[in-house]
Design brief:
It contains 16 helices and 8 strands. It has 428 residues and is of the alpha/beta class. The protein has a 5-stranded parallel β-sheet, with helices on both faces. The chain has a 3-stranded antiparallel β-sheet with strand order 6-8-7. Strand 7 and strand 8 form a beta hairpin. Helix 10 crosses helix 11, helix 10 packs across helix 12 and helix 13 packs across helix 16. The longest helix has 17 residues.
């Protein structure tokens, strides 16, 4: 990692003074002008002059840590699937599943870079990481693969078969081996089935040279394999499946500590603060949540003008919101999506919705999409499932009419319109 250069707090204020923005009154300045100048100097002093944060990069979800925390066993298991990779003609496969924030993507990136480094001088490994949620068609995936090998490859005018041939020729010409990661691969399979996976697994058939491509398939959906034909499962190998469990509190504390040590001034975050982050994030097992809780706490400390992050800066209010992403709806059942769609439509215009109204909207949505509504009991089970996943929140209150109590539903973790659009696209 590049050497960090601390920002001098006096540099910007000095610059402000040089440009005439300083706390000392000029002869013609009024009291208001002096006050404004002081405020401006303080404002400039704060730009880029974090008292805690030195490097924001480690808080990015795309950042690859130098080592993985809490995944030693899983890394060893993954390494066993790639035994013999130093030999030309050998290729490997792996299927990695796990919930949001379990470290699937960062594991594949860390492992790929480690494999590349370990085989340097013995075998040329090319890494290609394609997110199938962003590139959900066969042509888009193939285009991303070929661009990782040849950045000048034309983006149009070639069939899928022709692009596969280009990939073959490039690997052969450069005596290279491609380690291909298809992240969120279920998005591709649900849209276009598994034809591309089958072709990639057979890319060396009919050729003298073997072992040109290793494949890693990544998905939140543990039942993804049910989408594959028996021939594909056979080629992937049933022993090459790695399921990541949610992180526990000690691991999440360790992840927060790693980000703090890489990004912040030494001594600015205490063990007690990191432990609180680990405890809070353990409710979901989501590493992303731990990272966001830490980043939010740092912002609060710096906003207060402090150089240390207090335990009180870690707020549980960010607990559930941080862990929810729109892609979570993709793994819901059909009727869970229909229930959520009705709720989203109302919450675009209102702060909350009663469970009774949610039931009525669910029935209307079912009618719109020609689906038979499920029973009242099943509807309630769907509501609870949505709450468990953090997509909605509920509170119980006295009924506004008559006796009894009713459930009120809110959505603070993401924008209702975003989920509405995602669900509607699927049913169109």
């Amino acid at each position: 990692m590049a050497e960090r250069i601390p920002v001098r707090r006096d540099s910007l204020s000095t610059r402000a003074q040089q440009t005439g923005v300083c706390a000392r009154a000029a002869p013609n300045m009024s009291n208001n002008d002096v006050s404004t100048s002081r405020m401006m100097a303080d404002y400039l002093d704060r730009i880029g002059a974090g008292k805690v944060l030195l490097d924001r990069a480690p808080f990015s979800f795309d950042w690859t840590p130098p080592a993985l925390v809490g995944r030693d066993t899983e890394l060893r298991e993954l390494a066993s699937m790639f035994t013999g990779m130093e030999s030309h003609g050998v290729s490997s496969r792996a299927v990695i599943t796990g919930p949001v924030g379990s470290g699937k993507t960062v594991m594949t990136r860390r492992f790929g870079e480690d494999l590349q480094r370990m085989l340097d001088g013995r075998r040329k490994i090319i890494l290609a990481h394609v997110n199938c949620r962003n590139h959900p068609s066969t042509s888009q995936v193939l285009q991303q693969i070929v661009l990782s090998l040849d950045s000048g490859h034309p983006e149009r005018g070639f069939s899928s078969g022709e692009i596969i041939q280009s990939i073959r020729r490039n690997l052969n010409a450069h005596d290279s081996h491609l380690l291909l990661v298809l992240d969120e691969v279920d998005a591709l399979i649900r849209r276009e089935k598994s034809d591309l996976i089958y072709k990639l697994l057979r890319i060396d058939e009919g050729r003298d040279q073997q072992g040109s491509l290793s494949l890693m398939l990544v998905s939140q959906d543990v039942s993804m394999l049910k989408l594959f034909e028996a021939a594909i499962i056979s080629r992937l190998g049933e022993s090459n499946i790695l399921n990541l469990q949610p992180y526990d509190a000690p691991a999440l504390m360790g992840i927060a500590r790693q980000r703090y040590e890489e990004a912040c001034r030494p001594g600015s975050v205490s063990d007690d603060t990191l432990a609180k982050i680990g405890r809070f994030a353990a409710d979901t097992g989501d590493a992303r949540l731990a990272i966001e809780l830490l980043e939010a706490a740092i912002r609060r400390a710096e906003k207060a003008g402090r150089g240390d992050v207090l335990v009180e800066d870690v707020r549980p209010s960010t607990l559930r919101a941080a862990s929810v992403e729109p892609s979570q709806v993709d793994n819901l059942s059909k009727h869970q999506k229909l229930v959520l769609l009705g709720i989203c439509r109302r919450l675009k215009k209102a702060d909350e919705i009663s469970s009774g109204d949610a039931r009525k909207l669910y029935n209307l949505v079912c009618e719109e999409f020609e689906a038979r509504p499920r029973s009242y009991t099943t509807f309630w089970k769907h509501l609870k499932a949505l709450e468990t996943q953090g997509l909605i929140e509920t509170r119980t209150a006295n009924a506004s009419v008559g006796r009894g109590r009713t459930q009120h539903i809110t959505m603070t973790n993401t924008a209702p319109a975003v989920l509405e659009s995602r669900i509607e696209k699927e049913f169109q």
